[in-house]
Amino acid sequence: CHEWNMPLLAMMYTRGEKIESEYDVKYVKHAARVGAELSADIVKVNYTGSVETFREVVEGCPKPVIIAGGEKVETDIELLNMVDGALKAGAAGVSIGRNVFQHKHPEKIVKVIYRMVHGDATVEDGLKQLKEES
After folding, report:
1. Residue 129's closest CA among 103, 102, 111?
2. What string of pLDDT tens digits covers the 134 residues of the chain?
3. Who has the most CB within 10 Å: 14, 58, 65, 77?
């Protein structure tokens, strides 16, 4: 990637028989750091579940950190709270698959997430926007 001047995204997921939880801050923080040390330009990891613990991940990684979308969520508020928490912790952005593609209104949820990442929209703003556009 570097030879071709192309950014490298490292998807660093903590999995394996000795991993108690793939969302545990100590594992996620370590995985993010390994991704950076392997010369990734951007590191994608699981969200640890709280602003405080995810801030540890972001602060421990010298490269921009983004979150994966994780398991399929049941509600919009779960998804938006995850995005909000990651951003408050210092995440550079998000990379969400199934929770967008399998959403009942993918184009609407993308607009909301975009406004959260690149604007100043809150979870409440996003929920209101989703309700208004439905």
Report:
1. 111
2. 989 999 999 999 999 999 999 999 999 999 999 999 999 999 999 999 999 999 999 999 999 999 999 999 999 999 999 999 999 999 999 999 999 999 999 999 999 999 999 999 999 999 999 998 76
3. 65
